[in-house]
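Build the 3D complex.
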Amino acid sequence: MFYGASRSLLRIGCGAGFSGDRWDAAGPVVRTLRAAGGAAALIFETLAERTLALAQLKRQQDPQSGWEPSLERFVAPVLRDCVEAGIPIIGNFGAANARGAARRLQQLAASLGLPPLRIAVVEGDDLLGDLPPARMNELLPPALAGRPLVSANAYLGAWEIAHALREGAQLVVTGRVADPSLALGPILAHFGWPADDWDRLARGTMAGHLLECGAQVTGGYFADPGVKDVPGIARVGYPIVEIDADGTMVVTKAAETGGCVNRRTVTEQLLYEIHDPAAYLTPDVVADISQAELADDGPDRVRLAGVRGHARPATFKATLCYEGGWLAEGEISYAGANATARARLAADIVRDRLAQLGLGRLPLRADLIGVASVLADDAGRWWNAREGGAAEDVRVRIAASAGRREEAEAVTREVLALYTCGPAGGGGVRTHVTPRLASESCYVPRDWLRPRWSFA
Amino acid sequence: MTPAVPLHAIAHARTGDKGNRSSISLIAYDPAHWNAMVAQVTEQRVAELFAYRRPSAVTRYLLPRLHAMNFVLDDVLDGGVNDSLNLDSHGKSLSSLLLTLPISLETNP
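Done.
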């Protein structure tokens, strides 16, 4: 299917935009791609910044793990259709163990009665595995010196994916790659664009950018009742981009699904997590959408043009994750007459008790859910600038960070003890203690890394 | 000048995050309101709205062909998704705060 230098349209669908995404989203996308005929690919983006560090922690405990936990749930519903229709699947669901994920996918194919598949893995993103310790130390920000690193992964680009597809891969499993590269890979494999055709590389990158968050471009994360209504939102369809040999593209979605694709949904996603629109940095290209234009192209179809590109950066971006202590969270509710005053008193009691226990130094935050919770800042400046609202149904949330687990547990115990020692009428305590990961970014010279692909 | 309306009446927005940096897009529903947005939704006013989060920089990028602008607010997420104690550690809700900003719409002469 991927011979390069093709002039025909390529369709790329997205089956997941994050690890927590719906397992059944890809089905309608693949049905639509099959019905359309022609060249197509399917991508799964399931690897957020933290997700990889969590996978790395899992792999440390069990070497036979470390890939996307929902791998089979995402792929099983569409694998047969994709294999039969020659639609390659590209996913970063390899996380911290791409080879393990590839083995699991091969088992899945066998269990579905499919012949052995050509599954490629992309590697070279793991700095801890690939870089000598001296070079690793050069990269570490001073603040991280001496902290135990959990993971260090560079965002690789699209070329290894493209090469694997050109060699006939039916599935490409990656760890950390830039999200848009998941789509640029099959685009490069299909059209055979030169490596320095920055304008077209930028267009392929923006196709990936529009796809990589799944439903966020098709009416998900968009609805505002009465203002921005989305038809059939509970059946929102996932996106498909049709891209031509010049890199002009149309964004649309799976047939017979809910949601919508219009200039508003596409504009929100086009700008999502872009900083300077004239310089969107990826490992493949620096994309410039400052002069981009959107035009309606029929129902649920929007055309994107005007994307330009510049030479790719000289470095790879990498994310370093290290152990970040413990997060303690506890909640309790107060309702009815004088609820807000009782809720405030509950928070004050917890603060006082922690001071008595010698834990007054722990960074701590108290929210009154129903009055103010998410807009407020950790330091309490939001609260200090206001008289303080009132509500008749308030949930107190205490959150604290602690270096040691026992300290975090001491915080949640104090929330629990509010049942009998706190204000009148408190109910519904829930507590959680969870390990935290902290992260920093750094930049790695290109020639330090060896991105590579191989058949698993 | 007509009485001010909240931005929510004329524009929509979406927040994204990278580390301790928040980026908020702001998009006019009607191109007729674009000039008023450019004139009034300035870096300074947005910095004032988010001052309680102590931004180290607020930068506005204009995309006139899309009638959209993109605000980048540095160091406003209490350390970001891994460090913040906020329930909304990504700052996803910040776009809704931006949409409360009052804006005056000129009446046609």
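The two ends of chain B are 10 Å apart (CA to CA).
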